Amino acid sequence: MRNGGERPDGIALARGVVRLLAERDLPSITEVRLKNGRRADVMALARDGEIWIVEVKSSVADYRSDSKWGDYLEFCDRYFFAVPPDFPAELIPAECGLIVADAFGGEIVRHAPAERLSAARRKAVTLRFARMAAARLLAPPPGTPA
Description:
Elements (H helix, E strand, L loop, with lengths): L9 H14 L4 E6 L5 E7 L5 E6 L3 H5 L13 E6 L13 E6 L2 E6 L8 H20 L8
Parallel strand pairs: 3-4, 4-5
Antiparallel strand pairs: 1-2, 2-3, 5-6
InterPro entries: MmcB-like (IPR009394)
Organism: Minwuia thermotolerans
Pfam families: MmcB-like
């Protein structure tokens, strides 16, 4: 992580989280629509099939204004919050992992406990992840004429 002195916004924090996960061999995608209609900020898939969801919170106000994080737990084995370096870590529930990040990377400060998905749910979430990632690879770059 670099210390640029500026507060990173949610997009910059998500970029840092994606970079951290890539360094740990956890391919990830952002803005993942879940079957319950919620949207996970970042979802990663481990080599062993474990699924991580990371919810990005750019400020205390952002964290306090969003109480729907429990709706994500049924779609992952591990759940993390990612926050900027100056975020008070004690606000994050102990049952969640904690990532401190900026636009350039991050660090896992507290690992999330594993809550294993059922085989059927794992298959459904993994298939959704794969199809979404493949569709994004096939999509034209933003701003490209149709």
